[in-house]
Design goal:
Layout: H1 2-23, H2 26-33, H3 39-60, H4 71-92, H5 98-105, H6 108-118, H7 126-145, H8 152-179, H9 181-202, H10 213-241, H11 243-247, H12 253-264, H13 271-289
Helix pairs in contact: 1-10, 2-10, 3-4, 3-9, 3-10, 4-8, 4-9, 5-7, 6-8, 7-13, 8-9, 8-10, 9-10
């Protein structure tokens, strides 16, 4: 029994890690896409493309419709991760730098854990909260040390994004235990699809002639990977390994994202970033031990 539980937990952590790696490209890709796309159109278009693919998968595989009792939770997932987080972060990036946004992404694991308690009925040990807060403080401290300019508007938008995303993660993970990972994000995308298509048409640029290939490629990434494929692994990981526990892997996301930014946008990766990343990894390992 213990071996089965350990294998299940290991599977959860591996799936969660894959999800985090995929999500790490979201902010750099969003930044690239916003060079040519309006943040509203970008949000609505990525949800429409992902929702169309989800609809094809659901119909093609003849998946059963979710029961009525799951409609409201699916709507919460949709509002949180399909619409809320992508739109709020895109708007925030108009006011703050990617480096400054790390302050708030560092709080996302803690917010997910809080909603895991409120919505998922999980009860992590006190030591878990200590390591969770410590990991968040390391990320926040690193971001503040970068000297990014402050913007109240950008800060409030990122704070709102973190809150709705944490709720969407916890709600989706709880549903995954009943439905399955890809079905949860699939139905959440489908619920939003009619509204996203209409909104995309209303916010569509007058002409696409000035849109460069990098922006199109970035739109493709946030639509296919950030909005759909990443969630398949992420929700499966949260459901198997525990929402609060696996959620701590999000502490690695800002640093993986900066690594991608260094590669794609030629930003410098400092020795301090490597040192803080090692500290965060230790907090993730420690918090895992006390998550249940």
């Amino acid at each position: 029994m213990d071996i089965a539980v350990d294998k299940n937990a290991l599977s959860g952590w591996l799936n969660g890690l894959l999800g985090v790696v995929i999500f790490s490209g979201s902010l750099p890709a969003t930044r690239i896409a916003m060079q040519d796309f309006d943040p509203f159109f970008l949000t609505f278009a990525r949800a429409s493309l992902a929702g169309g693919l989800a609809l094809i998968l659901i119909v093609g595989l003849r998946e059963k419709r979710p029961p009525v009792a799951q409609i409201v939770p699916l709507m919460i997932v949709s509002l949180g991760v399909v619409v809320g987080f992508p739109l709020l972060t895109a708007l925030a990036l108009q006011h703050i730098t990617t480096a400054h946004s790390i302050v708030f992404l560092g709080l996302l694991p803690l917010m997910t854990a809080i909603f895991a308690v409120l919505r998922g009925k999980e009860r992590p040990a006190r030591a878990f909260w200590i390591f969770s807060v410590l990991g968040s403080l390391l990320v926040v401290g690193f971001a503040l040390s970068q000297g990014a300019a402050l913007s109240l508007t950008g800060d409030l938008l990122m704070l709102a994004a973190v809150i709705v995303c944490g709720l969407g993660y916890a709600e989706g993970a709880a549903l995954t235990r009943e439905t399955g990972g890809w079905q949860v994000i699939g139905w959440a995308l489908i619920l939003a699809l009619p509204f996203m298509v209409v909104a995309s048409l209303l916010m569509m640029p007058v002409s696409f002639s000035g849109i460069g290939f990098p922006a199109w490629a970035a739109l493709g990434y946030v639509s296919l990977f950030s909005m759909l494929i990443g969630f398949i692994f992420w929700y499966k990981g949260l459901a198997r390994g525990g929402i609060a526990a696996v959620g701590q892997l999000q502490l690695l996301q800002p640093f993986l994202g900066l690594g991608l930014s260094a590669t794609l946008l030629h930003e410098r990766v400092s020795p301090l970033m490597v040192f803080i990343t090692l500290g965060v990894i230790l907090c993730v390992i420690a918090s895992r031990k006390y998550a249940r």
